[in-house]
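ARCHIVE CARD
Drawer: 12
Card no.: 0347
Subject: one protein chain, sequence and derived structure
Cross-reference: see card 0346
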Amino acid sequence: MRFIRWQLAWMLAAVLVLAALGSFSYELYFVLSLIGLLIVTELTAPFTVTPEWRRRLRWLILFGLVGFAVVVVRRILEILPPEVLPW
C-alpha cells in the first residue's frame, strides 16, 4: 500500500504542477508519471525478499519505457524538417 500511496501522490503532484505552469499535455504527464514510477519503485524496494507483485512490476516498467521511446520518436519527427524524412 505504501507503494500505491507514493505513486498516486507523485502523479497528483505532477498534474498540479503542470496545471499551475500551464503546460499540461498527456505526453509530459506520461513521462513524469513514468519517472515517478521508477523513483518510487527504487525507494520502496525491500532489501531481502522480493514479493511476487514487484516482479510483475517489471512488465509495467518495460511497457512504460516502450511508451517513452514512442514519445521521444514522435517528438524527434516533429522537429526534423520534412526533406530529411524518407517518406
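Annotation on reverse: Residues 2-79 form one domain. The chain has one domain: 2-79.
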